[in-house]
Every structure is written in structure tokens, then in C-alpha cells.
Amino acid sequence: MIGRRAAPKRSSRDTDGTSISRRAALAATAGLTVSTSGCIQRLQDFVTRDNIDQLSLTITTLPDESDRACIRIANELERAFKSVGIDVSYRVRSDIDFHRTVLYDHEFDICIGRHPGGTDPDYLYEALHSLYTDESGWQNPFGYTNLIVDNLLEKQRRTEGEVRQRAVTNVLEAIAVEQPFIPICVPDEHRAVRTDRFAGWSEDHLATRRGYLGLEPSAGVETLRATQTDSRPTANLNPLAADYRGRGTITDLLYDSLATDDPTGDVHPWLAESLDWDGDTLDIWLRDDCEFHDGKAVTASDVAFTYEFLADMSLGNNEGASPAPRFRGQVEAVETVDVLGNDHLEISVDTNQTVGERALLVPILPEHIWRDRATDARGPGGVSISQGTTRAVVTDNTEPIGSGPFQFVDRTEGEQLTFERFDSHFTLEDDIELPAPTVEEFSIGIVPSGKSAVQAVEGDDADVTMSALESHIIDEVDRSGSGRLIESPSWTFYFLGFNARSAPFSNPRFRRVLAQLIDKEWLVEDVFHGNARPVATPVTEEWVPESLEWDGSDPETPFLGTDGEVNVNAARMAFEDAGFRYDDQDRLRVRQ
Questions:
Q1: CA 549, CA 536: separation in Å to the nearest integer?
Q2: Which residues, in sequence order, are CB contacts of 573 under 8 Å at separation 6+?
Q3: Which residues form the Solute-binding protein family domain (predicted)?
Q4: How confident is the model at residue 32 (pLDDT cuts 50, 70, 90)?
């Protein structure tokens, strides 16, 4: 059994009828700020005008070869911000350095990137709850704190049906006012595939494990050849490393989880043969005779170890818990794990069923390998995480042992990964109706760009582009012969994130004005060539409340201008209304 933090107590105001308007949320935040503003103002009265400088900010983002859209968004925002008197500089970082800077070190003013999002809005609990403001990973990298939002995020975890829907709506409306980060757009996801060697490409999402299982190879085809632009997996296959992991597709092919989800967010048994929900408890039976890739049996003890380990990678050896930088919000739902037999266990959760089931999507780790990694360590290159660095988070795990449908064979850093079918995998059993690996080998080649990936498919050097194609090359894909373009729904989104740990980014009024300098509709056309949809709120369409539906402009922070050009006078008035001032050279001023 593992113990977990008790569920937060319901406050007297946290009832099924709780409602919060967006304006009320902003007023509440202002109220929280007022308690300290007097002291701050008295201190500022002693500061001379010589200490009031032009507002300067640094945009941290990815280079063109990593994500062309990010650097183009950054370029447009630099132009918009400079037009209203803000001094702007850049920090362009590689994928790994970007994620370390933003997710581990929290050393940024604003950042532009692609957020992993989620099919269920509960991912916002992990992304924004103040419990996680000092942790590393996608746990609140923005350092955002708001007790009202915390309560709403907790409420949506405990309630069901219409009550949960209202709680989610209240969360979305509150953060639309507060703008802890600015959701810009959801990109269309397209991948190029060959249909002469494989059929069945459109059966499942190609960002998930199921997209590469159950394919129908042509006679004599024994290798599935993929290509992608992200070389990080060739250097590191640690499922816990937030700086090396993107969508987690490769992790899902190497490691099984108790359950799997589909693009609609529905959860289905996977490693678990049955999942019976009884109130706040899940009764789970594992499939018979499952093995890890090294031949060791997968048992209920490995499952219990996984949840204990993800909650605290030090296994109690550190003074405080050291939760994993990935899967934090999912594991937080788990209250206890009771091993009832070799293949039988019970998991109790302190959430509703929807959130509780999503806790079943984490990779099951072999205890005999990962237990020894629960010791303190300092990573190569000074990598560390705020919640405590252990060997578990710094190991590159380049010979991974999971129990998934494919097992690791070989790698060449920066060039390729090779996996082979795990012939003992349960999906290959005759009486199990789940998609299974249908090839002996799965190879992934690394290419420098999306255009190169498409060329590899068109030149019969690859069967699929695992990375979603950049928007500007979608129309260039040749679909005249065996090539085909597969479109899939997306739950990721491009965003501008604020580091709310320091002024002026801690000020919601400042964040709101910056949000109004972004013409999302224009960026979708200019940067994404129409292959995206602008959004005012960061959830899948079925969760968007009427108040935040996109109708030509952002309903909460409409753009102050037209066709990508900022109305400087309107922006200046907005900043002044927010309490900022300009000098006689039209430079926006801030106390340093």
C-alpha cells in the first residue's frame, strides 16, 4: 500500500451550485494583491525615478529547425511588442535546452512553445495548481498561483456530469481573465504515409501507440519504416525525462500501461484484463503471464511500485517527496494501491471516475530495474529538478526494458532507433481483440526537417512521418500515387507562457494587455497557412463553454488592432489603464 495526500476539504463555499464569473475572478485576484500592495507602494515611494526603466522582456523559444511556427510567432510578437514601447530580446534554445530552461530551471520571462495539452481538461490541474509552482516538468511551469482557481481545479476532480462541466467552465473562464498563459491556436495534425506497403493508417491516431499497431502489411513486408524530425529519443529513452519527451508515442510502444485511451479521451483496458469501478476503488486483474522484455514476469507488485515511485522517486529516502517530472497530475489522483495477488490489485483514488481512470495511463516500470535508481544524483551538464534529483530522472535509459509491444534493439545517436516485435506480448494472443504489432521490425530514422521526412516517404525510404508535418509543407505532399495525407485531431496547442514568479509577469492586468497584442486569427493564416484554429481556451472543442467560443476574435482579450497590426494608441491606453506609464519617448516604463 502507498499512502497519498488526503483530498482537500470542501470549503463552505465549494458547493454544487458554486459559480464564478470571469470578472469576479479578476476582482478576487485584485483583492488578494491589495493585502500587500500598500507595503509595496510605500517601498516604491522611496525609489527614485532613475530606477524606472523601459520595460524589457526576453522571449525564449525554439529555433526554426525544431519548430518553425514558434520562431515565426516570436518574430511577429517581437514586432508587436516593440511597436508599443517594449524592449524585446531573444533566447533561442534547442528542444532540450528550451525544456530545461522553462520546465526545470524556470529561467524565462515569456516563452513560446507547443503545450502537450490533453483530451480531458483535468490536465489543467497539473498545469496550473499552486501546489506545483516550485516543481519541475509540465507541473505549473508558469509559477501561477490563485486560490480560487485551485479550488475550482480540485472541484472538477471530485464531481461528475453537469456539476463537473460547470466547474470546468468556471476554471476556463477564470484563467481566460487571468491569462497565466495565452493559448494561441490548435494546429491541424497531418502525416504522410505510403499505402502500397501498409493499409489501415486511419484506424487510430498516429501520435499514440495504437496508430502503429494493427496495420495491414503487404505480402513480404516485415519492417515498418518511420521517420521523424525529433532526434532526442536517440539520446535518451527515459520515460520520466520531460526535457527529452514529447508526445510519448515511443514510450507507449516500449512500456505498457494498465489502460489506453483513444482520441475521444475514452479509457480502455490494456495491460489490465479487467477494470471494475466501485465508488472510489478500481478492482484490477492483470492479463495472464505478461513479461518484461528481459523475461521477468509483470506482476501486481510492479504496478504498485510504479505508482509509489512516480509519486516519490526517492522512495522515502529524501526528506521530502521527489515526484517524477512527468505523470505528476495523474499519479496525484491515486490514494492507495493494495496488492491482492500476483495478478490482482486494488487502486483507490480521491477523484471522480474520469480522472481516476486517467491515472491508469502511466507506463508500468519494472521494479527490479528502477528501484536501484531511487538514489540521489546530479545529472550530466548540471541537470537538476527542484523536487530532488535522483538517478531515475538523470539516467538516459538507452537500453530500455518495458513490457510493450516493441522492444529496443539498437540506436545511433542523432540518426536512428530500431525496435523489434516483442513476441510474448499479450496482444499477439489469439483470444485478445486488441491491435497488435504486425511487423518484425520497427525502425525510426531521424531527418532534419519535415520536408525531408516527406521526401523519405515519397522516395520509398519510409512508410510514415511520425512527426506531425509543419503547416507550410502540407500542400506539397504528393498524393497522386501511393502517398496519402492522414489528418488527425489534435489536443496540443501553441502558447505564450508567462513566468509569474516575477514582475511584471505576475500582474494579471499586464498579461491581459499582452494577450490583446496577439492577433491569433491573423497568425493562423500567416504562420500556419490556415492549417490551425485560433482558440481562447486550451481544451478540446467539446469542453469549450459558449462564453469562450471563437467567433472571429478572442471573446475575452480581443486583439487591439487589425490584420496583425497593433493599434498603438489603443494598446497604450490599455497599458495606462492597467497602471503602467510611458515616457516622453513613447517607451513603456517599469520599476526595476
A1: 7
A2: none
A3: 267-587
A4: very low
**Which amino acid, residue 548?**
L
Quote the Cα angle for 166-172-176, to 5°: 145
The residue to which cell 470546468 is assigned? 168
Residues spanned by CATH 3.90.76.10 within the chain?
236-401
List, as one string, the DSSP characters of 239-279.
TT-TTT-SS-HHHHHHS--SEEE-TT--EEESSEEEEEEET
pLDDT at residue 378, as a whole number: 59
Q: Is 160 exposed, middle or buried (0-12, 13-18, 19+ CB in 10 A)?
A: exposed
pLDDT over 50 (residue 381) = no
Residue 20 has pLDDT above 60, yes or no: no
Question: Strand 344-349 and strand 334-341: pairing?
Answer: antiparallel
263-287 pLDDT tens trace: 777 889 999 999 999 988 999 999 9
Matching residue, cell 495548481: 129
- CATH number of this structure's domain 53-187+492-591: 3.40.190.10
In the DSSP assignment, the letter for residue 104 is: I
CATH superfamily entry for domain 236-401: Dipeptide-binding Protein; Domain 1 (3.90.76.10)
Between CA 38 and CA 485 the distance in angstroms is 59
Beta-strand relationship, 464-465 and 223-228: parallel
Architecture category of domain 190-229+405-488 in CATH: 3-Layer(aba) Sandwich (3.40)
Helix (H, G, I), strand (E, B) or coil at 507: coil
Q: In this predicted structure, what is the pLDDT of residue 134?
A: 87
How does pLDDT run across 564-573, given as a tens digit for each residue? 999 999 999 9
- How do strand 223-228 and strand 441-446 relate by DSSP bridges? parallel
Place of cell 489534435: 490
In the prediction, which pLDDT does 283 show? 96
CA 231 to chain centre: 19
- What does the longest C-alpha to C-alpha distance in the chain come to? 81
Q: Which residue has the cell 503471464?
A: 289
d(CA 214, CA 204): 9
- 384, 105 Cβ separation under 8 angstroms: no
C-alpha cell at 94: 534547442
340 vs 495: CA distance, rounded Å: 44
The C-alpha cell 519494472 sits at 366
Choose among 494, 492, 467, 535: nearest CA to 116.
Answer: 492
Cite the residue boundaries of each domain of the chain with CATH code 3.40.190.10: 53-187+492-591, 190-229+405-488
129 to each of 9, 328, 485, how far by Cα in Å?
A: 16, 12, 39
Cell numbers for 504, please give them.
Answer: 511584471
Phi, psi of 83 (to 5 degrees): -65, -20
CA distance 460 to 554: 44
Q: What value does the mean pLDDT of the chain take?
A: 88
Residue 439 to residues 82, 225, 298, 459, Cα–Cα distance (Å): 54, 10, 24, 21
Q: Is the Cβ–Cβ distance between 388 and 314 less than 8 Å? A: yes
Asked whether the whole model's pTM tops 0.85, one would answer: yes
35 has pLDDT over 50: no
State whether residue 416 is helix, strand or coil: strand
